[in-house]
Design brief:
The protein has 3 helices and 10 strands, in the order E-E-E-E-E-E-E-E-E-H-E-H-H. By secondary structure, it is an alpha+beta fold. The chain has 2 domains: 3-102, Roll (PH-domain like), CATH 2.30.29; 109-163. The longest helix is centred in the last third of the chain and has 24 residues, at 109-132. The radius of gyration is 23 Å and the shape is elongated.
């Protein structure tokens, strides 16, 4: 039994259909057809808005949203969830070394807010120091805040590593 999910990726393109048949995913858009073997699956990252499957020789992106004729977005999350669940179950049997990850809320968002607030604090500190006539003191204090911002920006790439099983 073949399980499928379909979505229109762009209002200007035809509908794309992804079908899970046995040990392969077939992507069909019009006459064009691509086939991805589950045995070559390296990772599957799933989120509420879509899934990204990384294979040995390519990458497949499957969205949960689609466009209707009136250029309005249409949520097809029901068929998407069934399809991605079936792909994950089939891949777990076929490819035991593949990594599966559900992307939740971004962990980097609070750190990005902190970097933004520190940046505005640096600007305000320089402004107040300049108006008070203590420019050198303001620059010395602002340099320390900028150093904290650089450290926080350096930590951004490692935030999602804790949720990976291989990290």
């Amino acid at each position: 039994m073949a399980i499928s999910h379909s979505a229109r990726l762009s209002p200007l393109q035809g509908e794309t259909v992804w079908t899970l048949e046995g040990d392969a995913i077939t992507e069909t858009r019009g006459r064009r057809e691509r086939r991805f073997e589950l045995a070559k699956l390296k990772s599957l990252q799933s989120a509420q808005g879509g899934a990204v499957l990384t294979f040995a020789h390519g990458r497949l992106t499957i969205p949960a949203m689609s466009y209707t004729r009136g250029l309005r977005p249409e949520n097809r999350a029901a068929s998407f969830a069934v399809f991605v669940g079936a792909v994950a179950a089939a891949a777990a049997v076929t490819t035991p070394g593949a990594r599966f990850r559900n992307a939740g809320a971004p962990m980097a968002e609070p750190l990005i807010w902190m970097i933004g607030l520190l940046g505005s604090g640096v600007l305000m500190l320089l402004l107040f120091a300049a108006t008070a006539g203590a420019w050198t003191l303001g620059v010395a204090l602002a340099a320390r805040l900028v150093f904290v911002m650089i450290l926080a920006a350096g930590a951004l790439p490692w935030l999602n590593r804790a949720s990976r099983p291989d990290a």
